[in-house]
Automatic annotation (TrEMBL):
It comes from Coffea canephora (Robusta coffee). This is Phytocyanin domain-containing protein. InterPro entries: Cupredoxin (IPR008972), Phytocyanin_dom (IPR003245). One of its GO terms (molecular function) is electron transfer activity. It comes from the Eukaryota.
Length: 137
């Protein structure tokens, strides 16, 4: 049997280069939070996200209003069921520096726009999930 020092236990865990410091991430990047952009795709390409990271939602309340809802479950996320969702930002909070949401807990977060009677979510674009990772320093 080989020496324990020869064993490489560093496989399988890859850290984001900025994992030790919380990031401030603008949702949608320069596109912001608007109708017709695939935010689930954006989240997959811009992750991973870590505990302590801040998501910034920037949107213009005119000509088409937007909001930010936090959905309570994966099922409500899939169906865009806003009945038990929490409105965390209304149509006026996305201007200027935007609305900030800190990923404080190790849990899945499901974000969606509740405007248009839920249509902005149900068309499949203005919603995305995030599961923040724990910093392993």
């Amino acid at each position: 049997m080989g020496n324990k020092q020869d064993t490489n236990w560093n496989y399988g865990w890859h850290r984001h280069p900025n994992a030790s410091q919380p990031r401030r991430v603008e949702v949608g990047g320069s596109e912001g939070w608007h109708f017709g952009f695939n935010y689930t795709d954006w989240a997959l390409k811009n992750g991973p996200f870590y505990l302590g990271d801040t998501l910034v939602f920037k949107y213009n309340s005119t000509p088409h209003p937007h909001s930010v809802y936090l959905l309570p479950s994966y099922r409500s996320f899939l169906t865009c069921d806003l009945r038990w969702a929490w409105k965390i930002a209304d149509v006026n909070q996305g201007g200027g520096e935007g609305f900030e949401f800190v990923l404080r807990w190790w849990q899945p977060y499901y974000f969606a726009c509740g405007e248009g009677g839920g249509f902005h979510c149900s068309n499949g674009t203005m919603k995305f999930p995030v599961m923040p990772l724990i910093h392993w320093n």
